[in-house]
Amino acid sequence: MRIRSIRITPTVGLSLLLLCLLLTDAALAQDGEAGIREATTKLKRYFETAQTLLYAIGGVIGLIGAIKVYSKWSHGDNDTTKTAAAWFSACIFLVVVATVLKSFFGLN
């Protein structure tokens, strides 16, 4: 018995690949509204933890900033005010982002 080889040109191969992808996508598709509802539920469940994490990161950044500002101040650098403002602004930004996101997603 002789087996014949089949030649697949790049155009035919690409067409078969696209056909497989479209069939797979159609088989795995779900209702868009149900997906959004499920994502919203998961977001609400994990948001409190994420907000606490943002506050913790803000606290660590504040401590690092305080150490850096104290170091510059004790060495007599002239740009201590600018450095303090930058680190303080970073901490405030994290707290504001956590609060605004909570309000944006209606999780009051």
UniProtKB/TrEMBL annotation:
Highest taxon of source: Bacteria
Residues spanning the signal sequence: 1-29
What the entry lists under InterPro entries is as follows: DUF4134
What residue intervals traverse the membrane? 53-71, 83-105
Query: Keywords assigned by UniProt?
Result: Membrane, Signal, Transmembrane, Transmembrane helix
Keyword Glycosyltransferase on entry: no
Q: Name one Pfam family in it.
A: DUF4134
- The name this protein carries in UniProt is DUF4134 domain-containing protein
Q: Can you name the source organism?
A: Chitinophaga lutea
